[in-house]
Amino acid sequence: MYNFDYEQPGTIADAVAALGAEDAQALGGGQTLIPTMKQRLASPSKLVSLAAIAEMKGVCAEDGAVSIGGGTTHATVAAEAGAHYPALADLASHIGDPAVRNRGTIGGSLANNDPSACYPAAALGSGATIVTNAREIAADDYFQGMFTTALDEGEIVTSVRFPIPQAANYQKFVQPASRFALVGVYVAKYADSVRVAVTGASEEGVFRWSEAEAALSQNFSGDALEGLSVDADGMIGDLHGSKEYRAHLVAVMTKRAVAACG
Protein backbone atom coordinates (compact mmCIF):
# COMPACT_ATOMS: atom_id res chain seq x y z
CA MET A 1 0.00 0.00 0.00
CA TYR A 2 0.96 3.67 -0.02
CA ASN A 3 0.09 6.81 1.92
CA PHE A 4 -3.31 8.39 1.39
CA ASP A 5 -5.71 10.59 3.30
CA TYR A 6 -8.84 9.08 4.85
CA GLU A 7 -12.10 10.79 5.75
CA GLN A 8 -15.32 9.33 7.15
CA PRO A 9 -18.18 11.84 6.86
CA GLY A 10 -21.50 11.29 8.61
CA THR A 11 -23.84 12.74 5.98
CA ILE A 12 -24.31 12.53 2.23
CA ALA A 13 -23.70 16.26 1.90
CA ASP A 14 -20.38 16.02 3.73
CA ALA A 15 -19.35 13.03 1.62
CA VAL A 16 -20.08 14.90 -1.60
CA ALA A 17 -18.05 17.84 -0.36
CA ALA A 18 -15.13 15.59 0.57
CA LEU A 19 -15.21 13.95 -2.86
CA GLY A 20 -14.70 17.38 -4.39
CA ALA A 21 -11.02 17.16 -3.46
CA GLU A 22 -8.62 16.31 -6.25
CA ASP A 23 -8.18 12.57 -6.82
CA ALA A 24 -10.59 11.61 -4.02
CA GLN A 25 -12.32 8.23 -4.24
CA ALA A 26 -15.48 7.02 -2.52
CA LEU A 27 -15.06 3.88 -0.40
CA GLY A 28 -18.07 1.63 0.13
CA GLY A 29 -17.32 -1.81 1.54
CA GLY A 30 -13.87 -1.82 -0.04
CA GLN A 31 -14.20 -5.33 -1.44
CA THR A 32 -12.95 -4.22 -4.86
CA LEU A 33 -11.16 -0.93 -4.25
CA ILE A 34 -8.79 -2.07 -1.48
CA PRO A 35 -7.45 -5.13 -3.39
CA THR A 36 -7.12 -2.92 -6.46
CA MET A 37 -5.06 -0.42 -4.46
CA LYS A 38 -2.90 -3.22 -3.03
CA GLN A 39 -2.08 -4.28 -6.57
CA ARG A 40 -1.26 -0.65 -7.44
CA LEU A 41 -3.95 -0.61 -10.12
CA ALA A 42 -5.51 2.43 -8.44
CA SER A 43 -3.84 5.11 -6.36
CA PRO A 44 -6.31 7.71 -5.08
CA SER A 45 -4.77 10.32 -2.82
CA LYS A 46 -7.85 10.38 -0.58
CA LEU A 47 -10.46 7.82 0.41
CA VAL A 48 -13.89 9.03 1.51
CA SER A 49 -15.59 6.27 3.47
CA LEU A 50 -19.39 6.03 3.20
CA ALA A 51 -19.65 3.53 6.05
CA ALA A 52 -20.83 6.01 8.69
CA ILE A 53 -23.69 7.55 6.71
CA ALA A 54 -26.82 6.25 8.44
CA GLU A 55 -29.19 7.72 5.84
CA MET A 56 -27.64 5.42 3.22
CA LYS A 57 -28.45 2.20 5.08
CA GLY A 58 -31.51 0.03 5.45
CA VAL A 59 -34.31 -1.74 3.58
CA CYS A 60 -37.89 -0.51 3.34
CA ALA A 61 -40.92 -1.22 1.16
CA GLU A 62 -43.47 1.28 -0.07
CA ASP A 63 -45.70 1.86 -3.11
CA GLY A 64 -44.95 -1.55 -4.63
CA ALA A 65 -41.18 -1.18 -4.48
CA VAL A 66 -38.28 -2.05 -2.19
CA SER A 67 -35.83 0.76 -1.49
CA ILE A 68 -32.35 -0.20 -0.31
CA GLY A 69 -29.79 2.30 0.92
CA GLY A 70 -26.58 2.40 -1.08
CA GLY A 71 -24.51 1.69 2.03
CA THR A 72 -26.50 -1.43 2.94
CA THR A 73 -24.42 -4.59 3.09
CA HIS A 74 -25.23 -7.73 1.14
CA ALA A 75 -25.86 -9.55 4.43
CA THR A 76 -28.47 -6.99 5.45
CA VAL A 77 -30.20 -7.23 2.07
CA ALA A 78 -30.25 -11.01 2.44
CA ALA A 79 -31.72 -10.75 5.95
CA GLU A 80 -34.23 -7.93 5.49
CA ALA A 81 -35.40 -7.87 1.86
CA GLY A 82 -36.87 -11.37 1.85
CA ALA A 83 -40.23 -10.35 3.26
CA HIS A 84 -40.75 -7.99 0.34
CA TYR A 85 -38.64 -9.30 -2.54
CA PRO A 86 -37.48 -12.91 -1.94
CA ALA A 87 -35.50 -13.27 -5.18
CA LEU A 88 -33.40 -10.22 -4.37
CA ALA A 89 -32.68 -11.44 -0.85
CA ASP A 90 -31.72 -14.88 -2.17
CA LEU A 91 -29.34 -13.30 -4.69
CA ALA A 92 -27.65 -11.28 -1.93
CA SER A 93 -27.28 -14.36 0.26
CA HIS A 94 -25.06 -16.04 -2.36
CA ILE A 95 -22.68 -13.17 -3.12
CA GLY A 96 -19.08 -14.08 -2.29
CA ASP A 97 -18.51 -15.48 1.19
CA PRO A 98 -19.61 -14.32 4.67
CA ALA A 99 -16.73 -11.84 4.91
CA VAL A 100 -17.66 -10.23 1.61
CA ARG A 101 -21.37 -10.19 2.43
CA ASN A 102 -20.78 -8.44 5.75
CA ARG A 103 -18.56 -5.72 4.25
CA GLY A 104 -19.62 -5.25 0.63
CA THR A 105 -22.47 -2.87 -0.16
CA ILE A 106 -25.08 -2.71 -2.89
CA GLY A 107 -24.10 0.83 -3.80
CA GLY A 108 -20.45 -0.10 -4.10
CA SER A 109 -21.27 -3.06 -6.33
CA LEU A 110 -23.44 -1.01 -8.66
CA ALA A 111 -20.93 1.84 -8.80
CA ASN A 112 -18.15 -0.59 -9.72
CA ASN A 113 -20.31 -2.51 -12.23
CA ASP A 114 -18.09 -5.56 -12.46
CA PRO A 115 -19.12 -7.53 -15.58
CA SER A 116 -19.67 -10.66 -13.46
CA ALA A 117 -21.32 -9.10 -10.41
CA CYS A 118 -24.80 -10.18 -9.31
CA TYR A 119 -26.49 -6.89 -8.34
CA PRO A 120 -26.30 -5.37 -11.85
CA ALA A 121 -28.43 -8.28 -13.11
CA ALA A 122 -30.96 -7.73 -10.32
CA ALA A 123 -31.15 -3.99 -10.98
CA LEU A 124 -31.45 -4.32 -14.75
CA GLY A 125 -33.75 -7.33 -14.54
CA SER A 126 -36.05 -5.52 -12.11
CA GLY A 127 -36.08 -2.24 -13.99
CA ALA A 128 -34.70 -0.60 -10.86
CA THR A 129 -34.00 3.09 -10.34
CA ILE A 130 -30.55 4.07 -9.08
CA VAL A 131 -30.87 7.11 -6.84
CA THR A 132 -27.83 9.33 -6.35
CA ASN A 133 -27.10 12.50 -4.43
CA ALA A 134 -27.98 14.44 -7.59
CA ARG A 135 -30.65 12.54 -9.59
CA GLU A 136 -32.50 9.32 -10.36
CA ILE A 137 -31.23 7.03 -13.13
CA ALA A 138 -33.20 4.20 -14.73
CA ALA A 139 -31.25 0.93 -14.79
CA ASP A 140 -31.61 0.80 -18.58
CA ASP A 141 -29.61 4.04 -18.76
CA TYR A 142 -27.26 3.40 -15.87
CA PHE A 143 -25.18 0.45 -17.10
CA GLN A 144 -22.98 1.57 -19.97
CA GLY A 145 -20.41 -1.20 -20.42
CA MET A 146 -17.78 -3.12 -18.52
CA PHE A 147 -16.94 -1.21 -15.30
CA THR A 148 -18.74 1.80 -16.79
CA THR A 149 -21.87 3.55 -15.50
CA ALA A 150 -23.74 6.81 -15.94
CA LEU A 151 -22.32 8.16 -12.66
CA ASP A 152 -20.49 11.45 -12.86
CA GLU A 153 -17.27 12.16 -11.01
CA GLY A 154 -18.01 12.39 -7.28
CA GLU A 155 -21.61 11.16 -7.64
CA ILE A 156 -22.76 8.69 -4.98
CA VAL A 157 -25.34 5.89 -5.19
CA THR A 158 -27.49 6.75 -2.16
CA SER A 159 -30.24 4.15 -2.69
CA VAL A 160 -31.71 1.73 -5.20
CA ARG A 161 -35.45 1.33 -5.76
CA PHE A 162 -36.64 -2.08 -7.02
CA PRO A 163 -40.22 -2.49 -8.32
CA ILE A 164 -41.57 -5.71 -6.83
CA PRO A 165 -42.49 -8.25 -9.56
CA GLN A 166 -45.15 -10.92 -9.58
CA ALA A 167 -42.40 -13.53 -9.72
CA ALA A 168 -38.62 -13.46 -10.04
CA ASN A 169 -35.59 -15.69 -9.78
CA TYR A 170 -31.83 -15.46 -10.20
CA GLN A 171 -29.77 -18.39 -11.41
CA LYS A 172 -25.98 -18.18 -11.10
CA PHE A 173 -23.47 -20.60 -12.56
CA VAL A 174 -20.72 -19.95 -10.05
CA GLN A 175 -17.03 -19.58 -10.77
CA PRO A 176 -15.94 -21.52 -7.66
CA ALA A 177 -12.75 -19.61 -6.84
CA SER A 178 -14.19 -16.09 -6.92
CA ARG A 179 -17.89 -16.84 -6.30
CA PHE A 180 -18.65 -14.41 -9.14
CA ALA A 181 -21.06 -15.47 -11.87
CA LEU A 182 -19.54 -17.32 -14.80
CA VAL A 183 -23.03 -16.64 -16.12
CA GLY A 184 -25.95 -15.33 -14.10
CA VAL A 185 -29.51 -14.70 -15.31
CA TYR A 186 -32.17 -12.67 -13.50
CA VAL A 187 -35.78 -13.12 -14.66
CA ALA A 188 -38.58 -10.89 -13.36
CA LYS A 189 -42.24 -11.15 -14.40
CA TYR A 190 -44.42 -8.06 -14.08
CA ALA A 191 -48.09 -7.61 -14.96
CA ASP A 192 -47.32 -6.17 -18.38
CA SER A 193 -43.83 -7.43 -19.22
CA VAL A 194 -40.98 -9.81 -18.49
CA ARG A 195 -37.39 -8.68 -18.03
CA VAL A 196 -34.33 -10.91 -18.46
CA ALA A 197 -30.89 -9.61 -17.46
CA VAL A 198 -27.63 -11.48 -17.97
CA THR A 199 -24.35 -10.98 -16.11
CA GLY A 200 -20.95 -12.65 -16.41
CA ALA A 201 -21.34 -13.50 -20.08
CA SER A 202 -20.76 -10.44 -22.25
CA GLU A 203 -17.69 -8.34 -22.96
CA GLU A 204 -20.04 -5.33 -22.66
CA GLY A 205 -21.13 -6.24 -19.14
CA VAL A 206 -24.69 -6.82 -17.97
CA PHE A 207 -27.34 -6.84 -20.71
CA ARG A 208 -30.98 -7.59 -21.36
CA TRP A 209 -31.86 -10.57 -23.55
CA SER A 210 -34.67 -8.96 -25.53
CA GLU A 211 -35.60 -12.05 -27.58
CA ALA A 212 -36.22 -14.05 -24.42
CA GLU A 213 -38.22 -11.20 -22.93
CA ALA A 214 -40.50 -11.07 -25.95
CA ALA A 215 -41.06 -14.83 -25.95
CA LEU A 216 -41.69 -15.02 -22.20
CA SER A 217 -44.09 -12.08 -22.32
CA GLN A 218 -46.27 -14.17 -24.63
CA ASN A 219 -45.80 -17.49 -22.79
CA PHE A 220 -44.06 -17.50 -19.43
CA SER A 221 -42.62 -21.00 -19.54
CA GLY A 222 -39.42 -22.75 -20.50
CA ASP A 223 -41.10 -23.95 -23.70
CA ALA A 224 -41.16 -20.37 -24.97
CA LEU A 225 -37.36 -20.36 -25.00
CA GLU A 226 -36.95 -23.39 -27.22
CA GLY A 227 -34.82 -22.53 -30.24
CA LEU A 228 -33.64 -19.22 -28.78
CA SER A 229 -29.95 -18.51 -28.23
CA VAL A 230 -27.59 -15.58 -27.85
CA ASP A 231 -24.81 -14.91 -30.33
CA ALA A 232 -21.44 -16.14 -29.08
CA ASP A 233 -19.75 -13.15 -30.68
CA GLY A 234 -19.16 -10.60 -27.97
CA MET A 235 -19.30 -13.14 -25.17
CA ILE A 236 -16.38 -13.44 -22.76
CA GLY A 237 -13.94 -16.21 -23.58
CA ASP A 238 -11.30 -17.18 -21.01
CA LEU A 239 -9.76 -20.14 -19.17
CA HIS A 240 -13.05 -20.67 -17.29
CA GLY A 241 -15.24 -20.96 -20.37
CA SER A 242 -15.31 -20.28 -24.08
CA LYS A 243 -17.57 -17.74 -25.78
CA GLU A 244 -19.75 -20.57 -27.04
CA TYR A 245 -19.96 -22.14 -23.58
CA ARG A 246 -21.13 -18.89 -22.01
CA ALA A 247 -23.67 -18.33 -24.79
CA HIS A 248 -25.03 -21.83 -24.14
CA LEU A 249 -25.20 -21.17 -20.39
CA VAL A 250 -27.29 -18.04 -20.92
CA ALA A 251 -30.11 -20.12 -22.38
CA VAL A 252 -29.73 -22.86 -19.77
CA MET A 253 -29.78 -20.49 -16.80
CA THR A 254 -32.70 -18.53 -18.22
CA LYS A 255 -34.78 -21.70 -18.47
CA ARG A 256 -33.85 -22.60 -14.89
CA ALA A 257 -34.83 -19.15 -13.64
CA VAL A 258 -38.21 -19.34 -15.38
CA ALA A 259 -38.84 -22.81 -13.96
CA ALA A 260 -37.89 -21.61 -10.46
CA CYS A 261 -40.40 -18.78 -10.72
CA GLY A 262 -43.07 -21.45 -10.61
Automatic annotation (TrEMBL):
<keyword id="KW-0285">Flavoprotein</keyword>
<dbReference type="InterPro" id="IPR036683">
    <property type="entry name" value="CO_DH_flav_C_dom_sf"/>
</dbReference>
<protein>
    <submittedName>
        <fullName>Carbon monoxide dehydrogenase medium chain</fullName>
        <ecNumber>1.2.7.4</ecNumber>
    </submittedName>
</protein>
<dbReference type="InterPro" id="IPR051312">
    <property type="entry name" value="Diverse_Substr_Oxidored"/>
</dbReference>
<keyword id="KW-0560">Oxidoreductase</keyword>
<dbReference type="InterPro" id="IPR002346">
    <property type="entry name" value="Mopterin_DH_FAD-bd"/>
</dbReference>
<dbReference type="InterPro" id="IPR016169">
    <property type="entry name" value="FAD-bd_PCMH_sub2"/>
</dbReference>
<dbReference type="InterPro" id="IPR016166">
    <property type="entry name" value="FAD-bd_PCMH"/>
</dbReference>
<dbReference type="InterPro" id="IPR036318">
    <property type="entry name" value="FAD-bd_PCMH-like_sf"/>
</dbReference>
<dbReference type="InterPro" id="IPR016167">
    <property type="entry name" value="FAD-bd_PCMH_sub1"/>
</dbReference>
<dbReference type="GO" id="GO:0043885">
    <property type="term" value="F:anaerobic carbon-monoxide dehydrogenase activity"/>
</dbReference>
<keyword id="KW-0274">FAD</keyword>
<dbReference type="GO" id="GO:0071949">
    <property type="term" value="F:FAD binding"/>
</dbReference>
<dbReference type="Pfam" id="PF00941">
    <property type="entry name" value="FAD_binding_5"/>
</dbReference>
<feature type="domain" description="FAD-binding PCMH-type">
    <location>
        <begin position="1"/>
        <end position="167"/>
    </location>
</feature>
<dbReference type="InterPro" id="IPR005107">
    <property type="entry name" value="CO_DH_flav_C"/>
</dbReference>
